[in-house]
Amino acid sequence: MWKKIIGQSNLKKIFVNIISKNKFANSYIFYGKEGIGKDAFAIELAKIFNCINYIEKSGACDECKYCRQIQNLNSPLVKFIIALPTGKKKTQNEDPLTALDSESYQIYLEELNLKSNNLYYKINIPDANSIRIDSIRNLINEANFTIETNKKKFFIISECDKLNEQSSNALLKILEEPPKNSHFILTTSKPQTLLPTIWGRCQKIKFDNISDDELKLYINSNNTNLSTDEINLIVQLSNGSLSICKDIMHSYFFELREDVLKLLRAIIQNKYIEIHKCILKICSGKDKMKQKQALAILILWFRDINISNLGKLDFITNKDKKDNLNRYIINYHSHNFQIIKLIDSAIKDIDTNVNPESLLFNLSFGIRSLISEKVKS
Q: Which residue has the higher pLDDT, 39 or 179?
């Protein structure tokens, strides 16, 4: 059932029941951590309500013209709204996309295409920091257009925490008096940042993390070349997020782990030039996801040290690095919980506008201050 949605079995049952009883609300907020399918679920609902061949037990057909258009995010029945960079001046209520410069517009089209091919993909457009009021005004205009009989129009506002005060207030007006056959789904991983008026106007649906077993099943069905230890490592780093899992599977992950361990060796040995080289490599491309993955790898390393110190080697994540872990434990003592706390704080800071190189330099010195060499007897 709902074959494009991984996990969320309880929510699938809930919405099948809602749809069968014709109790679908005008507005919802889907919230939960990044990469667990909130956008994907919203798009799937849009397909279900407009699919010619919908069957309750299997979901949308994915073959009729409505399903194909919605999947491609190219349907008059679905408006997918995201944060956009500031554009050139234009007339009020004009489509905000027409205000983008040619480069930004091309990036927008490329990112939307990536999203349509992978509904778990996180759109990333440079300098797109807020959902603009023009996007909401355009939404309001389109919501009032007449549509085909027996069809429903969906307005999906992705990362709605990027609504500013102006755009939030503009959206609130239509949420209070929604047009017939129009539905609004707001998705976010930061529900605490929404205006109380927006929060109070929508029905709230919390999404679960994707289970380890579901992630393992996904990995096995998409990559048969990984060992059991490698799969377990990817699952640990994914932390319940399918989008992170996909990024790791189709990226530089195992090379990145070697870079992180090289950085850790340089930190321990106080090799400042080597620390500098490692940090520049990790931060190359200004890829925040890559930086977060690097820090997540560091956290798992120090957790494995804790587990090893307790003698529970069967529970470590980096099983293929047991020799490295043993050498570290023999030669060094570290305040692992404090180090993990420092790294976790740095992960959160990456999403702000701090300089990543400076962040990792400061973190490196913080980690080094919590590691001491054991005195050999």
A: 39
